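Protocol check, entry for the methods section draft. Step 1: assemble the input record (protein sequence plus ligand SMILES). Step 2: submit for complex structure prediction. Step 3: store the structure tokens unaltered in the notebook. Ligand used here: magnesium ion. Step 1 record:
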Amino acid sequence: MNDINGWQFFHKDIIGKGGQGKVYAAKNEKYEGEYAIKVFKLKWMRNDATRRKRELRINNEIKVFQSIIHKNIIIYIDSGHLKREDIFYIVMDKADTSLKYYIHENDLSLEEKKDFFLQIIEGVRILHDHNIIHRDLKPANILIKDNTVKITDFGISFFLEDRNEPRVTSPWEIVGSRNWRSPQTELGRQDEPSIKEDFYSMGKILYFLLTNGKELYREHFDSREFFLPYIHKDPKYLVFENLFIHTIAENQRDIYDNLDDFIKEFKKAWKEFKMFPIDREIEELVRLAHVFHMNRKYEEHKALITKAYNMDKGNPYGQYYYGKLLYGENRQESLKYFYEVANNSRFSDYLVLADIALLLFHNDDAEMCEILVQRSKILKERRILPKNLSGISEELKKYLKYSALGRP
Ligand SMILES: Nc1ncnc2c1ncn2[C@@H]1O[C@H](COP(=O)(O)OP(=O)(O)O)[C@@H](O)[C@H]1O
Ligand SMILES: [Mg+2]
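Step 3, stored output:
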């Protein structure tokens, strides 16, 4: 058994290991319950400069701990240095686990994800209110105790008022963790650290939550692998695109410059997510089906169109695309769906109507074809925007344009 100033722990009770120290479950006669002790052994460090920097970081971490008491920051208990052994230690409340593991061990509901993220926001807010930038936000540093988020690991955090103090990171040193740090952090210390670095990591953490633990490896967040509606095969997830564009951005200019904007957008997205109206949902499903079709994923395309149709069998878009789906296999059957759409006099998508007119023309129904062509023309002249085009969000439009998959 080890004893560091009354803190007792066994090596086998290691509960975590990071780049800096090892963390053990520990007890102390003077305190009730179990705690976590983070132990840093510097004795065998040969290089003096490296050792000094480690010490700087440890003191930095202690300083953050001592400045903040908040329910979303892990509670600090004690710290110290054993001179002879050159061991530093920090004692804190012991959490149950970290988000890194929690996400895989629990089937989180969307409400729970939202709740976790709001708590992360609150933790970051208290840091920023104290002029501290965390700079290493990631699931392994988001602890969870009694279902409550507790942010930890402040080794490379930056106090904005300490601009002139010795820095805990060297110029050009890569700080933060791969996959979670912002491109700016990655480039090393060219500029002043910025709270935007934290917003960047928070964007990635949100992505991690919404994808049940996927890490975003590259910054190509607009490619389809990183496109949430594509991953979930559910267009509802489009509502979060704006948040990603303003957090996981290549260029720091695009990142929110204050937490309130971030929260406002987050709450707005969530509200829209919950209220995604059913016909918009059908339209978005159809859009998404197009993306699959263009990528030659015909099974997925078929499944989505069928889903869209079944969602509301009276919806003209569902009818039209379902009809098209059947067109190759059973023309007679598919005409039934086209007539449904054509006879819905309130339907105002001239592109769809013109398309059906063409199909009916090929099926020798010249009269109906003519009616539809006229209706389509009138609608176009009146500049009635096709409902499906005006309804889709800016993000998807951009996405479709980008992948050259959009309809005219
Ligand atoms: N208070 C704690 N309670 C429970 N586990 C912890 C605690 N502190 C750290 N850990 C675990 O140890 C890991 C490393 O701790 P951390 O403070 O992040 O050190 P490092 O700076 O080396 O990354 C964390 O990812 C977490 O899994
Ligand atoms: Mg860590």
